[in-house]
Amino acid sequence: MDDQNPGFETAKVFKWTEEGLIEQDRPIIREVPLTIYLNDHEIVTLLCLGDHLKSLAVGFLKSEGLINRVDDLKSVFVDETNRLVRVEMEEELKRNYQIQSLLSSMLGVSFTSMTLDEQMDEILAEKYGKSHLGTYYQALVQKELKNTGAYQSLLAALEKQAREYSSGKSDYRNRRAGAGHYLLSLVLAEKGEKENAAAELNTALSQNAMARRAAVLQAQLDVARAHQ
Predict the structure, then answer these.
(1) CA 117 to CA 51: how far, in whole Å?
(2) Whole-angstrom Cα distance, residue 211 to residue 65?
(3) Fewer CB within 10 Å: N-end or C-end of the chain?
(4) What single-letter DSSP state applies at residue 130?
(5) pLDDT (tens digit, 0 to 9) for every residue of the chain, 228 residues total?
(6) What is the distance between the alpha carbons of residues 219 and 134, in angstroms, rounded to a whole number?
(7) Interatomic CA distance for residues 206 and 182, integer angstroms
(8) Topology of 31-90 in CATH?
(9) C-beta of residue 66 within 8 angstroms of C-beta of residue 99
(10) CB-CB contact of 75 with 89 (8 Å)
(11) For the stretch 64-76, what's the b/e string if a residue is b when 16 or more beta carbons lie within 10 angstroms of its beta carbon?
């Protein structure tokens, strides 16, 4: 790694010249994973050059519509060692975040011109063939509406599906299993089992570094089938 240029590292490459094949040390771009959390919810793991992490995280959240202004933020903590950024919003804004989050990527609906009640109605109106990430967000809506029975029922259904996925049966490159462990981490976190949730998340990422994306893809496919 080049200490003067954190976004690059030095690698040995071979180059054909008039004198024949020679070996050289050349700088190449070094991409590293960065995981962004908002109010203790994992939002995304993306690849970056490894510097300006605070600006990158806040800019990403703004571009996704999860925050409107820098003033919305309560704190931003950067863990350069583990490549994590934890962003905390002001308390009164958490409600809006939990409801809309990244569900728009599955429904293809822009929530920017909708009221919060309209957003919740849109989410609850979706019908799914199987429990997946969309079910998790429906559970959050029911929790917000204080419909405890519906909230717990949705979480139970998602946990059952997640455990089936995580068993790894008929899986391809651990995509379904990784998504299952990721979904299970969300359920356990909602149930207050933080250590078990963290363990499931670690398992998910060890099996599939893009476990969250795999969970989103599963949801997108199911939504698409439902609308055919």
Answers:
(1) 39
(2) 22
(3) C
(4) S
(5) 444 455 667 878 888 888 888 888 888 777 888 888 887 777 778 888 888 899 999 988 887 767 777 777 889 999 988 889 998 886 554 555 555 554 555 555 555 556 667 777 777 877 777 788 888 888 888 888 889 999 999 999 999 999 988 886 655 555 688 888 999 999 998 899 989 988 998 888 888 777 777 887 777 777 677 666
(6) 6
(7) 11
(8) Ubiquitin-like (UB roll) (3.10.20)
(9) no
(10) no
(11) bebbeeeebbeeb
For residue 18, give every residue at least 6 positions away whose Cβ sits within 8 Å of its Cβ, in sequence order, or none: none
H or E element in which residue 87 lies: strand 84-89
Residues of the chain with CATH 3.10.20.10: 31-90
Sign of CA dihedral 77, 79, 80, 82: negative
Task: Give me the half-sphere count of Cα atoms (radius 13 Å) on the Cβ side of residue 25.
Answer: 5
Q: Would strands 8-17 and 20-29 be described as parallel, antiparallel, or unpaired?
A: antiparallel
Structure tokens at 135: 């079910």
Is 220:105 a contact under the CB 8 Å cutoff? yes
What are the tokens at 144?
Answer: 């917000």
DSSP 6-63: TTEEEEEEEEEETTEEEEEEEEEE--EEEEEEETTEEEEEEEE-SS-HHHHHHHHHHH
Q: What is the largest CA-CA distance in the chain?
A: 76
Distance CA 62, CA 69 (A): 8
